[in-house]
Amino acid sequence: MGREEILRSYLEQCLFPQNDVLHCAVSGGADSSALLILASMTGKEVIAHHVDHGLRLSGDAERDLVRGLANKVGARFEAKVLSISDGSNLEARLRDARYEVLPPDVLTGHTADDQAETILMNLMRGGGPDGLAGMTHHRHPIITLRRSDTEAVCEASDWVPFQDPSNQDPRFHRNRVRRELIPLMNRLAQRDVVPLLNRAGKIAEADSAFMKTLAEQIDVTDARALSEAPNPLAQRAVRAWLSEKHPPDLASVERVLQVARGEVLGTEIPGGRSIRRTNGKLRMETSSKEHGLPKENG
User: Fold this and answer.
1) What is the DSSP string of 72-105?
2) Whole-prediction pTM value?
3) Does residue 23 sit in the same domain as residue 118?
4) Cβ(173)–Cβ(69) under 8 Å?
5) Are 102 and 49 in contact (CB under 8 A)?
6) Structural domain range at position 252
């Protein structure tokens, strides 16, 4: 099989969106490089977005490498330079800072291996069905490929990707899942567990989507409707109502359901908010910083 046929075979496994412009986050590693290479084969306009977090002296070289790949595949190139200080919670801070400067519809080079890691990390955090579902394909078009596949894409394209030293840093939770937990699971199962975890994720994603549709039919402010709904649906409806940047904890969801059932008159929830029940209706109140008075949110 020739190089073009190899690349086409991988492209056929991808799930690129129908957008007129494909925005690709490209760090320079094999996964994101493969994303850019395959995106350029769709015939759409492609823009490579590179973010330098300002943590490594090699930042300029990494940026030039990605620019070179963009030129090679005929993609536009845009770069952002940040100034992130090292320290605690670095992994999350880097992710948040990166997504703040990237387009909202940016595509990433997460693979099936990343999906397996994400599912395990979510489970270790106590995530439920949504956590087991992992990442959806909408922003991750090469999520069906393995890391060995992305390396093969780079090789077929005569491209040598950047080897990110942060992938060896044990401070990052994902790295330990990748290098310690999954190999241990492979040995215990005596097989490659990545396809198994991905399969479980797809089942959970379908179940979660169905449950979400049912939960959206519940008027979460109607105390009677909420208290009479099956508990898994009621919990999901409340969770969607309370969610801000992150979903609420289970204890907060249960306290809101106690209000709906009339077991308590009201409850406080994180974010300076409270839930009250009046004439069979639930309302959310937030504290006004200017006047110290509650402010209602429908």
Assistant:
1) HHT-EEEEEE--PPPSTTHHHHHHHHHHHHS-TT
2) 0.83
3) yes
4) no
5) yes
6) 216-297
Question: Which residues on adjacent β-strands are paired with residue 297?
Answer: 284
Tokens 């350029």, residue located:
40
Instruction: Report the alpha-carbon angle 81-83-85, nearest 5.
Output: 150
Neighbours of 126 (CB within 10 A): 9
Return the half-sphere exposure (C-beta side, CA atoms, 13 A cut-off) of residue 261: 14
Q: pLDDT tens-digit profile of 258-291?
A: 999 999 999 999 888 999 999 999 999 986 544 3
Q: Which pLDDT does position 168 carry in this prediction? A: 80
What values do phi and psi take at 274, rounded to 5? -140, 155
> What's the CATH number where 102 sits?
3.40.50.620
Q: Spell out a b/e string for 224-242, using b for 16 or more CB atoms within 10 Å of the CB, else e.
A: ebbbebeeebbbbbbbebb
Give CA 38 to chain center in angstroms. 21
Q: How many domains does one find in the chain? A: 2
Task: Let me know: does 120 contact 177? Beta carbons within 8 Å.
Answer: yes
**Residues 101-123, mean pLDDT to the nearest whole number:** 95
- To the nearest whole number, what is the mean pLDDT of the chain? 90
